[in-house]
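note to self: dont lose this again. the chain is below, predicted strucutre after it. 524 aa total, dont forget to put it in the shared folder this time
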Amino acid sequence: MGASGRRWWPTVGAVATGILVAVPYNYAGFYPLTWVAFVPLLLAVHGRSRAAHYGLGLLAGLSMYLVATPWMVEFLQRLKDYSLAPAAAGAVVFWLLTAQLPAFLMLVWRWSQRFTGRLNLWLFPVLVMLFYGWFPVLFPLQLGESQSAFLPAIQGVDLLGVYGLDLMIGISNAVIAGGLLNARGRLRDGGRDARAASAVSVLLLGVWLGYGWWSLDHWDRQADSWPTLSVGMVQSNEIPSASVPAPEPGYSRAWPPEMDLSQQLADAGADVIVWPETRYKGYFELDHVAGAFQRNMARLDVPLIFHDAEQEGSGQDFREYNASAFIDSGNLARVYRKHRLVAFGETLPLSREFPQLTDWTQQYLGDFFANLTPGTERVTFPVDGVQLVPAICYESAFPGHVARSVTVASESPLLVVMSNNGWFGNSRQPWQHAGATVLRAVENRVGLVHVINNGPSTAVSPSGRILASTPFGERIGLIAEVPYPAGTTWAPPLFSHWPEWFAITVGLLALVVLVLLRLKSPSH
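---
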C-alpha cells in the first residue's frame, strides 16, 4: 500500500466499522457483521494517539448513526412540525451527540493503554459492554439488540442480560483484531498472557453459544407445552402529528378505526384485544368517549388494552400522563402510567428538580418541550389467569425497567408493548424497535406481544422466535396465540431478579484491575 493509501486507511476503517455495526439493526439477517464490525476500527487506531482514537471513534459513530437512524429528520418534522432545514439541523445535533458514545469508548480505551500493556485488547469488550449499556443517549441501541435473528446467541441474556451479549460481541471483535495484529507482527506485547487471554476468550464464546443451542431447544419445548392466550393485535396505521387531528371521515372519537378491527377480532375469538400507542383518543377527557368505549367492549365481551393521554388535577396541580388503560367487563379496571419518558419529546430533563427550567422554556420556546409526569406504580392487567405486563413504546429499550415490571406478576406473566412508530415514517426504525424488543422476551422468559401502530406488530415466544407478524404500513387486525406459563410453573430467570448484576459486577472488577495496574505502572 502506498503512502496515500496508508493515509486514508484509518478513515476507511472507521467508516467501515460504523456501517458494519448499523446494517444488522436495519436488517436482522445480517447479524454476523456485528461480531466483526469493530475489527477495522481496532486495526485503524492501533499505535495512534488519543486524539486519533477519539476522532476515529467519532467518525465510526457518525457513520453508524447516519446509516441506522436517518429517520431522525422525519421524526423531528412530524413531532415538532418542523420544516426540512431545522429538522435536519436537529438531526445533525443528535448524530453528533450520539456519536460521542464510540468516541469516548475509544478515548477511554486509549487512556488505559498506559498501564494495561499486553492485556489492553481484552479490556475492550468490557468497555463495549459498559458504554453501550450505560452511556446516555436519547434512543439507546445496545449491540445485542441487533441480534434478534441469531437465536442461539441471544439465549444467554436470561442470565446476563443484553449486557452479556454485548460483552461476547466485544470479545469476538477483540479476538479477531488481536489475531490479525499478531499475524502482522504489530502486537509487540503478544506474549504468554495475551495468548492465554485469547484462549479464555474463545472458550467463553464457545460456552455462550453452547448454552444458547441447548437453551433454545429447551425453551422451544417449554413454550410448546404451555397454554396460549389469543391476543388480538390492532394495527391502526394512523399517521401521527404534533397537533390533535379531527377523526377520520366515517369515524368519531366514540368509534375510532380501532373499534372496527376490535369487533372483527372479538368475533374471531380473541381473549383480549390490544391497541397500539397512537393518536389522542379522549377517553380520560370526554365522558361520551369513555361511555362508548365501555359499552362497546361490554357488548363484545372482550377485555381491551389501549393507550391515551390522561389528565389529572388543575392549575398548579395539573398533571398529564402517557397512559395505558385496561377495560374489563365494560369497566375501567386499571391504568398504567408510563415510567420512562422520552427526553425532550415527553419531558424536559431536570425540570422536576429545577422548576424554573420549565418556566424558561415556556417563556422562550413555547410548547417546544412537552412535560408529562412519569408514572411510579407497576401494575398488571389480569385476563383469564394471565398477568399482562404493560410497557409503552420507549420503555422497552430499558431491560431493567421491563424486568422489574415482569416480576410484579405473581404468576403467568405475558409482556404487552404498545408503540407508535409512525413518527418515523417509511423507515427501518419499526423493525429496529421490534427486533430489540425480542430480547425483552428472552431476558425474562415470557411470551411477548408488541403492537406497533404502523407495523410490523409481532408476537414472540420465550425463546425469541417470532410467532406472528403483521405487514408494515397496513391497517389490519391479527390474532396471535401467545404461550404463557400456567399457574406457578414460571420462575423468573436470574436476569429478571437482578437485571444489572452482571454489568455492575464486571464494571467494578474492571475498575479494581485498572486501579491496581495503575498503581503498579512505572510512571505512577
